[in-house]
Write a structure and sequence with these properties.
CATH topology of the largest domain in chain B: Rossmann fold
Shape of chain C: globular
Chains: A mainly alpha (about 400), B alpha/beta (about 280), C mainly alpha (about 325)
Largest sheet of chain B: 6 strands, mixed
Number of helices of chain C: 12
Distance between the termini of chain B: 56 Å
CATH superfamily of the largest domain in chain B: P-loop containing nucleotide triphosphate hydrolases
CATH class of the largest domain in chain B: Alpha Beta
CATH architecture of the largest domain in chain B: 3-Layer(aba) Sandwich
Strand order of the largest sheet of chain B: 6-7-8-3-9-10
Radius of gyration of chain B: 19 Å
Strand order of the largest sheet of chain C: 1-4
CATH class of chain C: Mainly Alpha
Strand content of chain B: 15-25%
Oligomer: heterotrimer
Number of strands of chain B: 10
Number of domains of chain B: 2
CATH architecture of chain C: Orthogonal Bundle
Number of strands of chain C: 4
Structural class of chain C: mainly alpha
Order of helices and strands of chain B: HEEEHEEHEHHHHEHEHEEHH
Radius of gyration of chain C: 20 Å
Helix content of chain B: 40-55%
Strand content of chain C: under 5%
Order of helices and strands of chain C: HHHHHEEEHHHHEHHH
Chain lengths: ~400, ~280, ~325
């Protein structure tokens, strides 16, 4: 056992620190604030618009956190689940398939339009299911691969799906119906109409906000419960040392696939929601940079840390949608430079990634354990793998 | 018997008549290198047996084949009458074989308790849905499993104040204890210990030796050791097998093996043996 | 047995496209010259990918890291090349001698620039993270990739920019067996072959080259033998970057269009090539580059450019799953 463990032993002791009720109290407070937030803003304010998108990203990040954070499977193709989820909305909640005439639990004017029209709740469920399936299929080839190879294979899958999204308008599936709407996309998407509520419109963003917030609560609930269960422990064990995990009776294949399945399903739900909110499903939404964007949220927040990931998603979404394009955009111009800050979007983002990895790789709100793992490796100059093996 | 073990079929608790584990003509070839060459070996039920040999003799490779980390190139391995050759490691563990590692491989960012909980993975039933919904059955199982984990940690001699400590923060001796507890967590019938006394002083080694006897007597365990510490080997083994360059060169009772010329040569080299 | 089947299975799968279209051509037109034309273009394009792939394979061989920013270094090479045309005063009206020497000078400058850029990326993004979990340097690599792409974006804008056709790339030079060789093809081979040869000799014969091989095999042993591992790693990045710079120049003159996003696409294609040949194996990278070039050309020409990325990536996934050691790599040890 390496000597590097000895100094660390004096540093921290117990796994749990603040009393449980303090954490729960804080969580309840944050939840209440979140619920009341839209009441302080105009129903069509840009702030709520950003908030809705941010919350959708929170769901995405939570899903990716299951795959990368819990199970340690480096997925660089998470955009695949966004795409499939979004297409579920596009296929089953619009007039895209004009020759079909299916209506399930819809109401109002939509009830008479051609196309496939399912109630939004059904669409969400189908999206989760399709993405769970896709997750399993994407995960299968990666099972015996090393970390960086998993990254490349998942990236490849993401790109393949993008190619199909872009060119889907040339692929016929049945009776002249196409797979996707290509670059033009599938638009418009039906109004979201939930039972007992008025339909959501673009004139009042508050219901959208509360709906996605409810989804966030549900996903948080699921993810936290899983983390503290037999499955969560199995995932973290695999992340730490998969050989030891297998030797302790953890079935690698099944457990890894379940991580992809759960992570994918969550991404699909977020994707389906975003498609309905943005009222469009087009191929340009599904670039590789999206996968990196969500991954950055997970890393910035803290790999494996549920609350960290929430924070990371909110922050990055805000920086990307508000801070750079609106607040700071003209700063370079004021400094005499010949471009806007938005033109530097890519570069700023890349810079952020580099800085975080070098200065604070454990993220903003690290899963407490991770801090030890990463700093030990970097500071002591000794390989973290040496210490563990 | 705790509730956790009741819910999952474990290996037969009746001592298996005959040799618990047999390896017949087992070989492992990596590319051009023959790491293990036609080793035939048997462990009688409820015994403590050791494998010794100079460094590089192929002991850990052989071990890894017994636990499923390597697939034998040739040969057959049976456990409790069942053929386990080339079986996946998690299936072998589920069948009742558990192991510790030469360099401790605890899950560093988990607590001692959580490490032991992972050890019980194959004995638990909780699935995704049950975990999310916390059904009564899941809650009962989780409670029983935690209880059992605490018992096991206490059994191996870990202080309760250390149960929730991060494994990576524990003292070396405690980490070894947790490793054994984690192996015991799956209710094994056969326990494989890879150099369990590495880094221990004589008192600690003696304590571990007593503990092994306790495991055999109180828990009906059969134990296979890889060891370098001859005092431990001689003191606790009922049978000793010697490997050198991947081959079995001697086998028998500890005293007989110790005086075996070939064994002495293997360890000391022919010059040393002649002196 | 399984390894043998996988290797030949891979070869069969790789041959599938050319063989299918070859048979189709014979049936339709009785001549293989169309396929031959595809293959020629495949080889010359492939030589660009080969140069980039060698960079990937050298770096992976020595520090087991996928240099995600490598493709974008290639892109910078193209941009530097195009930028220097104006600086040196090369234009369509320059005489052949001027163009010849001018390009040679630009080649050297582009190679050095990209080599140094690659070394700098290693210093800033990878070296501090050498003992961190593999995720860390991969992320910083992606970060640098984005930074470089932004540089390209600011340099020449978001749309593809055209480059003066200095060598008259599309001009036919000669025809053999019904296959027409163009200047672009000759350029590609003229630059690639000497570079690959020079590099192979360097690695095989010189002291530094041997140090590279030793470090790639076993860094700790190399250190014990007195090899400065850090310098060796920097040297590896330098060579990889230089080759990427050369590839950038060829690409700019060959395609006469450059784009800030070309590095991302090229990077993935070249990485597929490196894996196909056997990651860590230089000959494999070159072979992989040529093969991928051919597949890509056949796909572009016969199936449609819009589908090519999907086809290349499908090959990548197949290789990773069934034969991760590629064509020339060795079976790796099992986990233990």
């Amino acid at each position: 056992m390496s000597a590097a463990a000895a100094p660390a032993a004096r540093r921290t002791s117990r796994v749990s620190s603040p009393p449980p009720w303090a954490n729960k109290g804080l969580a309840v407070l944050v939840a209440l604030l979140a619920i009341m937030l839209p009441l302080f803003f105009d129903p069509i304010s840009g702030f709520i618009d950003d908030a809705v998108v941010a919350l959708a990203y929170v769901i995405m990040a939570l899903g990716l956190n299951v795959v990368v954070g819990f199970a340690g499977l480096l997925d660089l193709g998470y955009v695949a689940f966004f795409a499939i989820g979004a297409f579920t909305t596009g296929w089953f909640m619009s007039g895209f398939y004009v020759d079909a005439n299916i209506h399930i639990l819809t109401s109002g004017p939509v009830g008479t339009l051609p196309g496939i029209h399912l109630n939004f709740i059904f669409v969400l469920v189908i999206a989760a299911f399709l993405c769970a399936l896709a997750g399993t299929l994407i995960g299968l080839p990666t099972l015996r691969l090393r970390g960086d190879y998993i990254a490349i294979v998942t990236l490849a899958f993401g790109e393949i799906i993008r190619v199909f999204a872009v060119n889907g308008d040339t692929i016929s599936i049945a009776h002249g119906a196409k797979l996707t709407g290509g670059r033009q996309g599938i638009t418009p998407v039906d109004q979201v109409k939930l039972p007992f509520l008025d339909p959501f419109t673009q004139l009042n963003l508050r219901p959208w906000y509360w709906f996605v917030l409810a989804l966030v609560f549900i996903v948080l609930f699921v993810v936290i419960r899983l983390r503290d269960s037999r499955m969560g422990r199995a995932w973290i064990a695999i992340r730490e040392d998969e050989v030891a995990a297998a030797s302790m009776g953890v079935p690698l294949v099944k457990t890894k696939l379940l991580a992809y399945t759960v992570g994918g399903a969550i991404g699909g739900v977020a994707g389906a929601f975003l498609a309905a909110y943005l009222n469009t499903v087009n191929a340009d939404q599904f670039a590789f940079s999206f996968s990196i964007f969500v991954l950055a949220m997970v890393i910035l927040g803290g790999l494996g840390s549920v609350w960290g990931v929430v924070l990371g998603a909110v922050l990055l979404s805000f920086i990307n949608n508000r801070l750079i394009p609106d607040v700071l955009d003209s700063v370079p111009g004021k400094l005499g430079l010949n471009f806007n800050l938005t033109d530097l979007g890519f570069g700023i983002f890349g810079f952020l990634l580099v800085i975080v990895m070098i200065l604070r790789p454990e993220g903003l709100l690290p899963e407490r354990r991770r801090q030890l793992e990463l700093h030990e490796g970097i500071d002591s100059g000794e390989s973290v793998f040496e210490a563990r093996v | 018997m705790s509730a956790a073990t009741e819910s999952q079929p474990t290996a037969d608790r009746e001592p298996y008549a005959g040799d618990l584990l047999t390896a017949e003509g087992v070989s492992k070839i990596f590319g051009g290198l023959v790491a293990v060459n036609e080793v035939t070996f048997a462990i009688p039920t409820r015994s403590i047996v050791s494998i010794i040999g100079p460094n590089g003799a192929g002991k850990t490779t052989f071990f890894n084949m017994l636990t499923g980390l390597y697939k034998p190139t040739f040969g057959r391995i049976s456990f409790s009458g069942k053929d386990i050759t080339g079986m996946r490691p998690d299936r072998i563990t589920a069948s009742g074989v558990a192991r510790t590692f030469q360099n401790i491989r605890l899950f560093g960012t988990m607590s001692a308790l959580e490490n032991v909980l992972v050890g019980q993975h194959s004995r638990m039933r909780a699935g995704l849905v049950g975990s999310v919904l916390r059904t009564p059955r899941t809650r009962r199982e989780e409670k029983a499993v935690r209880e059992k984990a605490r018992e096991t940690l206490a059994y191996v001699g870990l202080r309760p104040s250390s149960f929730d400590q991060l494994a990576i923060n524990l003292a070396y001796g405690d980490q070894r204890r947790v490793e054994i507890a984690r192996a015991l967590a799956s209710d094994p019938v056969l326990l494989l210990l890879d150099e369990p006394t590495a880094g221990m002083n004589p008192q600690e080694s003696a304590a571990l030796t007593d503990f092994m006897r306790k495991l055999r007597d109180e828990r009906d365990l059969t134990i296979l050791l890889i060891e370098h510490d001859m005092k431990v080997v001689m003191g606790v083994s009922e049978k000793v097998t010697v490997l050198d360059h991947g081959e079995k060169i001697a086998e028998g009772e500890p005293a007989a093996v110790r005086d075996n010329q070939r064994v002495i040569e293997a360890y000391l080299g022919k010059q040393g043996a002649a002196e | 047995m399984k390894a043998w089947a996988n290797k030949w299975g891979l070869i069969v799968v790789l041959l599938a496209l050319p063989v299918y279209y070859g048979i189709k051509d014979l049936a339709d037109t009785g001549s293989l010259s169309h396929l031959g034309q595809n293959l020629l273009a495949g080889l010359s394009n492939g030589s660009i990918w080969a140069l980039i792939a060698v960079g990937y394979t050298l770096v992976y061989g020595i520090i087991e890291l996928i240099n995600f920013a490598h493709g974008d270094v290639f892109m910078i090479g193209s941009f530097v090349t195009a930028g220097l045309f104006g600086t040196i005063g090369l234009g369509l009206t320059s005489g052949p001698l001027g163009i010849g020497f001018g390009l040679l000078a630009i080649l050297l400058i582009a190679m050095v620039t990209c080599g140094v850029l690659n070394v700098m990326i290693e210093r800033v993004a990878y070296r501090p993270l050498r003992s961190a979990p593999k995720l860390a340097p991969l992320i910083t690599a992606v970060g640098f990739s984005f930074i470089l792409q932004n540089v390209g974006l600011l340099w020449l804008g978001g749309s593809p920019a055209s480059v003066p056709d200095l060598i008259h790339a599309q001009q036919d030079v000669f025809t053999v067996f019904g296959i027409t060789v163009q200047r672009a093809d000759l350029l590609a081979f003229a630059v690639t072959i000497p570079l690959v040869a020079a590099m192979t000799i360097f690695i095989a014969r010189t002291k530094l080259g041997k140090a590279m091989r030793a470090t790639a095999q076993d860094p700790d042993a190399a250190r014990l033998m007195g090899i400065n591992v850090d310098t060796t790693i920097s040297l590896t990045f330098l060579i990889g970057g230089m080759l990427a710079g050369a590839a950038g120049l060829i690409y700019a003159l060959y395609q006469t269009t450059i784009w800030f996003f070309q590095g991302f696409q090229a990077g993935l294609i070249a990485f597929t090539a490196a894996v196909m040949g056997g990651i860590g194996n230089i000959r494999g990278a070159v072979l992989g580059g040529l093969i991928i070039g051919c597949i890509q050309q056949i796909s572009d020409n016969r199936i449609g450019t819009q589908w090519t990325p999907a086809i290349v990536f499908a090959y990548l996934i197949l290789i990773m799953v069934f034969r991760p050691q590629g064509l020339l790599g060795e079976e790796t040890r099992e986990a233990g």
